[in-house]
Specification:
- By secondary structure, the protein is mainly α.
- It has a two-stranded antiparallel sheet. A two-stranded antiparallel sheet has the order 3-4. The protein has a two-stranded antiparallel sheet with strand order 5-6.
- α5 runs antiparallel to α7.
- The longest helix has 32 residues.
- The radius of gyration is 30 Å and the shape is globular.
Length: 744
């Protein structure tokens, strides 16, 4: 009797799965019979306008359009329909694999004009040509992946959960296409000449060039190579930002600093500030016509100089940008140090300095290494500050940019430089993971700890304050200039108030047809907001879905899957930009010049933050909630939607805020991808600064900061905070037998 009752829901579940499979088969057929197989400028509407043979679906292209290599694509859907009708999971899996394999083979085996794989030319004819793939090919690939998931689920994979298998396939496929494939294009392009032919001697010559590894600055009056410049700059910034961040963290956690909100504001400002704005503000202060430079000349007769352009100015700019990140890392580490250990040291008659040196310092070493490696990677990947204030001190990120947009236009040289930069950053990333994986400094346990943190030794406290207070004043001066500098006529020479810069960028005028946006910055601002708003939910959704797969599912290759998802975080933005140019500038995936490529770049560049936020929140959620939902008959998709997503609201908010802010402030990853039609705010600001229009650049930066502050407050108000009910320390436990007074 019980077996009969259990068979009813199982049969219903199998029937619903089979019904959904038929819908995906219909979508698969539509991709071949209704949608344009190749990409068109007009999109889907080009089919209705009769845009020509190129807009026809794959079935027409294969039979009447002279492209017989598309004929094998018609076979897997027929095989899949036979398999679904007969409930045969094996043929359904074979159909999905065959469809994806042939789609990749024919897409990459044919160039825009000619065969890339000679075997296909022998099989289908001597001539071939095809443009980039379109919406039909995209739907074909998605349908094949989903139906492959149905076949694997029927065979018992992942407990028969179609949603889980399809999610793994789609996430892995998208990462391989939009992260792995572009990086592979960079690696391959480095070994080719300008005609696309393999040339190993040319690669060896470019890789060992004097411009990359030269040491003339050590052996003579010349310059060092860009690799050594970048490495020295990253090490210097890593060490100094870690020490400055430690000083700030010690002041915030171990002293009674009178302005704690100022320190909190300092930690927030670099997150919402475009990366090149600090360098721009330093130019306005210390450039040849800067405020401080003019003042020093007028009052002390000091001659004007260009000392700010080069390694000194770049170091100051990067320290201002990256020190708050080190401060946040080390503040959390210091707060995690158990006060009982420090009190035990003092109980044994150790002084404050001895306790700090032998107890506190060893416990915060992992935090110091973590802060250093983060600043090291950020300095290597930074593009905005070097292009703005680097001068003749060239680093790898800038050299890659000029190799692409310069007169030489050598993509092979850019690829070689990208490989060097990628080696540096991935090495630092792997060292960071190795350090965190092998060492453990646990001080927070389940036992109560009511001790007081150790107060700093007098000498160390004075030294920290002597560093922190001037740095805070410099930071306030920098951001004060950013907020008001756009309303000054000419900083340094004419400091009178004006609205000219603001109106040039954001004027609204009335014409014959009514009001219109007359400012030159409106187009880039609206494009930036559209791209950021479109990328924000997609980034959060993909990140949370990936975190759920990593935390709640067990499958083969899970470790490799996790490393692949984090690879885009370790790859510098400049390398992402050049890799997208090499990968998506030609068929089969031709996306350059469109707004879609910028959305994709932002999604996969910022996705790891959503993954980490989701993993951190999921690790606090007991798996019994999932099990209870599954016991009540819900599938994995319903459990994720109805049970886990409401609990993951903080992680979703974090992913959305970070994605929105980074999409507005990023410059290195998209400076290669913008076009005349799709220009972004950061690229517009860099262009204005290069032409010396500092007023427009600075007022635009202030507007961006105001927009991001408003967005942060709005998202926080909509999402709210997750609060945990806890008794305060003043609420004593009631004495046994004593009546507890009723609360109103």
């Amino acid at each position: 009797m019980s077996a009969a009752l259990l068979s009813v829901p199982r049969q219903g579940k199998a029937r619903s799965i089979r019904h959904a499979a038929w819908w995906w088969l219909a979508a698969w057929a539509a991709s071949l019979l209704a949608l344009p197989w190749y990409g068109q400028e007009g999109g889907l509407s080009s089919l209705l306008r009769g845009a020509g043979a190129e807009a026809l679906p794959a079935a027409w292209q294969a039979t009447l359009g002279g492209r017989p290599w598309l004929l094998p694509l018609l076979v897997p859907p027929l095989l899949a329909a036979w398999a679904v009708a007969g409930r045969r999971p094996g043929p359904l899996v074979a159909a999905g694999i065959a469809a994806l394999a042939w789609l990749v083979l024919e897409a990459f085996g044919i160039r825009a004009h000619g065969w890339r794989l000679e075997g296909l030319g022998w099989l289908f004819g001597a001539t071939a040509a095809q443009p980039a793939l379109g919406w039909g090919a995209l739907l074909y690939a998605v349908a094949a992946m989903v139906l492959l998931a149905y076949g694997l689920a029927w065979k018992g994979w992942c407990k028969g959960e179609v949603f889980t298998i399809a999610s793994i396939g789609l996430v892995c496929g998208s990462i391989l296409v939009f992260v792995g494939y572009p990086v592979l294009c960079v690696l391959v392009s480095a070994f080719q000449d300008n005609d696309g032919n393999l040339d190993l001697p040319l690669f060896a010559g470019k890789l060992t060039a004097e411009a990359i590894w030269g040491l003339d600055c050590v052996t003579g009056p010349g310059r060092c190579g860009v690799a050594w410049n970048s490495l020295a700059q990253a090490i210097l910034v890593g060490v100094l930002s870690t020490l400055l961040g430690l000083a700030f963290a010690l002041v915030a956690t171990r002293t009674r600093f009178p302005f704690p909100r100022l320190l909190k504001l300092l930690s927030l400002l670099p997150v919402i500030t475009p990366p090149f704005v600090i360098g721009l503000a330093l130019i306005l202060y210390f450039g040849r016509a800067g405020l401080v430079t003019v003042w020093l000349q007028e009052w002390f007769g000091l001659p004007r100089s260009r000392w700010i352009y080069g390694m000194p100015g770049l170091t100051i700019a990067q320290l201002l940008a990256f020190t708050p990140i080190s401060f946040l890392v080390l503040q959390g580490v210091l707060q995690g140090v158990s006060p009982s250990l420090e009190e035990a040291s003092q109980t044994l008659r150790s002084g404050r300095w001895r306790t700090f040196r032998h107890v506190t310092w060893p416990l915060i070493r992992p935090g110091l290494a973590n802060a250093f490696l983060i600043a090291f990677i950020e300095s290597l990947a930074d593009f905005g500050n070097p292009i703005m204030i680097g001068g003749n001190f060239q680093v790898l990120s800038v050299a890659i940019y000029f190799a692409v947009v310069g007169a030489a236009h050598d993509q092979g040289q850019a690829a070689v430089l990208a490989i060097v930069l990628l080696i540096f950053t991935l090495s630092a990333f792997l060292l960071q993971r190795l350090w965190l994986g092998r060492r453990s400094y646990v001080t927070v346990t389940g036992k109560g700890d009511s001790g007081q943190p150790l107060r700093l030794p007098r000498g160390l406290r004075i030294a920290c304050l002597a560093v922190v207070i001037p740095w805070l004043l410099l930071t306030v001066a920098i951001y004060g200039l950013i907020l008001v500098g756009g309303f000054i006529t000419a900083i340094g020479s004419d400091n009178s108030f004006t609205l000219r810069h603001f109106l040039t960028a954001f004027a609204i005028e009335r014409g014959v047809d009514g009001w219109f946006l007359a400012g030159s910055a409106w187009s880039s601002l609206l494009t930036t907001l559209r791209v950021a708003l479109l990328a924000m939910p997609l980034t959060a959704a993909l990140g949370i879905l990936t975190a759920w797969l990593l935390n709640r599912q067990s499958f083969a290759g899970r470790g490799a899957f996790e490393f692949l998802t984090m690879m885009s975080f370790a790859i510098p933005g400049t390398v992402i930009g050049i890799s997208y140019i090499l990968a998506f500038n030609v068929p089969p995936l031709e996306l350059t010049g469109t707004g879609l490529i910028m959305v994709i770049a932002f999604i996969f560049r910022n996705m790891p933050v959503g993954i980490r936020a989701g993993l951190a929140n999921l690790s606090q959620v007991d798996r019994s909630l999932d099990e209870a939902s599954l016991t009540l008959g819900a599938r994995s998709a319903a459990t994720l939607r109805r049970v886990l997503l409401p609990i993951l609201r903080p992680a979703i908010a974090t992913a959305m805020v970070y994605s929105f802010v980074r999409a507005i402030t990023s410059v290195s990853a998209v400076i290669f991808l913008v076009s005349g039609e799709y220009n972004l705010a950061t690229v517009y600001i860099v262009g204005r600064a290069e032409y010396g229009e500092y007023g427009i650049a600075i007022v635009y930066s202030a507007v961006l900061i105001a927009i991001m502050v408003a967005a942060l407050l709005l998202i926080q108000a909509l999402v709210g905070e997750r609060r945990i009910g806890r008794r305060s320390a003043t609420e004593a436990l009631p004495v046994p037998g004593e009546k507890v007074p009723a609360r109103a």
